[in-house]
Amino acid sequence: MKILKFGGSSVKTADRIQHIIRITKNDPEARAVVCSALGGVTDELIEIAHLALQKEEDYAKRLLMLIHPHIEIVEKLISAPQNTDIIAEIESLTEELLAILQGISLIGELSKRTLDYVLSFGERLSCSLIAACFQAEGINAQYLDARKLITTDKQYGAAQVDFETSNALIQQYFKTHTALQIITGFIAATPEGITSTIGRGGSDYTASIFAAALTADELEIWTDVDGVMTADPRKVSKAYSIKLLSYEEAMEMSHFGAKVIYAPTMMPVLKKNIPLRIKNTFNPDFKGTYIGQQVNQGREAVKGLASIDHVALLNLKGSGMVGISGISARLFGALASEQINVILISQASSEHSICFAVKPSDARNAQNLIQAAFDIEFKQGLLDEVELFEEMAIIAAVGENMRHSVGIAGKFFTALGRNGVSITAIAQGSSELNISVVIKKQDEVKALRVLHQAFFLSEIKTLHLFVVGIGLIGKAFLRQLEAQQAHLLRAYNLDIRLVGISNSRKHYFSEEGLAPTEWEKYLQQSPEEANIEAFVKKMKSLNLINSIYIDNTANAEVAKMYEQVLKSSISVVTPNKIASSSSYAQYVLLKQKAKQHGVLFLYETNVGAALPVISTLRDLIDSGDQIQKIEAVLSGTLSFIFNSFDGKKPFSAIVKEAKALGYTEPDPREDLNGSDVGRKILILGREAGFPLEFEDIKIKGFLPKSCIEASSVDDFFVELAASDDYFMKMLQAAQKEGKVLRYIAKFEQGKVEVGLQSVGTEHPFYSLSGSDNILAFTTLRYPERPLVVKGSGAGAEVTAAGVLADMIRVANYL
Hints:
The chain is α/β, with parallel strands linked by helices. It contains 29 helices and 28 strands. The strands form five sheets. Strands 3-4-2-1-7-9-10-8 form an eight-stranded mixed beta sheet, with helices on both faces. α6 links the parallel β3 (141-144) and β4. α3 packs antiparallel against α4 (84-107) and α15 packs across α29. The chain is elongated and about 120 Å long.
């Protein structure tokens, strides 16, 4: 024997009622069906009652609008003249309810008792018509008003059930009534026959009461989701149905906000060890969630996540609490005196403080009650002022297997910490059935997603990218991301989503993520003008897990945002050298902020594009090696120019060729003055552990004064051509000694210099060709033969590849 219960969303329309009739017909074990009011009706009845109380004239019109769907359902599902009786019943109930509302309006009073009576019409209307619809389908069904059988006390609005009397009445009734019973949920009556309601989740509770009284084989709760989910699917899109839950797990999930089940619902069936199954009316073939006393727990340590999205946290602390008995009794006694429900409690082992969570509506009253209860201690300075934290939320991870699993708490807190979710209070019972934390309300959704990924989708990691700068490097990065996206998901379980994108004109956001092929279309159509402060503000407000800010610009304003980005627990990846080569204090600050907030600040492409330069240097130092000297050719532009300058062409012609190939800046002097090389060797010196400033670098220029002071780029090339003999003499002097010219940066014993040098065949830089970069690390372990890193160190494609590699490093860290 089964008891089936259908909620408001399941009986909202004629089609849905036909659907529940089919479900019931296909289940030969169905003995009774408990139904709620049609979807939205209960809330509407509350509003109508308050309109009547306020003497608003349109309450009668609103009532007729509420009744109309009931008539429509009857007319659609039951043809005339069969529908005459049920339409007459609906009209009779309407007249009765209208008279009650008129009385409320005339007297100007709406007691809980009266409101219960008003609300009872929702279930009475729905179940009357649903029973008639079953009968019209030829099913032997009978309407049952639960007020005849469920007896309660007089706590209207949340009446307590008299189970001894109710069970006896239910058992006696079902002995003599063999038809399928269509039972009103939510409503009951006092011994005097006065209508009462049995509180939140009342229709589920009604079904549970009948199932327990009749010792049913199973209770089925039919709703609009596929059972109890691993998290709220409205907040975590990847949540999925839990197959099995114990009663204890389900109770914990219910206490901490799981909307599908309510703790009182389970109590009657739990006592009788009757299993409960949550199923989806709109997906009836899905098995849903089975809740029982003995369930095969499987391997999952955490079964589900639940949250209460709006609580207040109060903290009582002070030296006067330490070692004093009765403090807790006085505190919670004071709260109980005003029926304030405590949702969560956390106490320091030092007994110096107790914090607890309550509904926001109870917070101020609770604060005043504590103040009164401990008035003497406050006046004597033994207790501090009661702290009140508003706009908070509770997140709970629930699972019986947590007590048998090592490292669950570590995984829980690490996941939150890595994503910048700050915890205000922690609670865990000795049963280890759940871990609960209080966090800021604004972080609730992010925390749920972080924990859901950690415990339920640990094989797949979602990254959220915010890309600024769509020039040569930015476009190359997006092309490479598109090419690698499927591979990264398949090989490394990285689900990469391009959420925000900005160029110098516009920016665009898509929380679900853009395909790398679509960004250009959406960016062009975006009404949002580019503004880096607005971009970062929006990125922070989205508060997405595993976020990465990728700066592909060379813009100082974009780099200025790094500090607040890192403070928001968002990693930064960039080829932009401005931040890491600015003041040493700023360089240190950014690294500290990244460390403090559990994220990464990666800039491998600042030196050598995609060459493993900074990472190699860090590995040497971290493994205990000591850097004695770094020599490097760090400019692809200067490398190409001096590698090509063999005397066959004038120096000026080679510079023009480099500009035509896109190797130089629009004004080649920006490359030829050595400043860019200076910034790169500065970064390496800092990575080696030296507090260097740009002013500490000795840059030896090689351009004649006339070239430097030329008023335009054209004039520069004129002066450069006039200086070709000067450069040729430099080359010939080197060649005479069997050497070549190379523009080299050198760091040694804390000193840095950059300049043009001639090197012989014994030097590792002698055979350099094309636009390659090369670095030689002379260290304690590599004293005679330096560790050499060589390869293409310039160009959009290789730089973008380095950015992509840094992005993957962040993914592996998070």
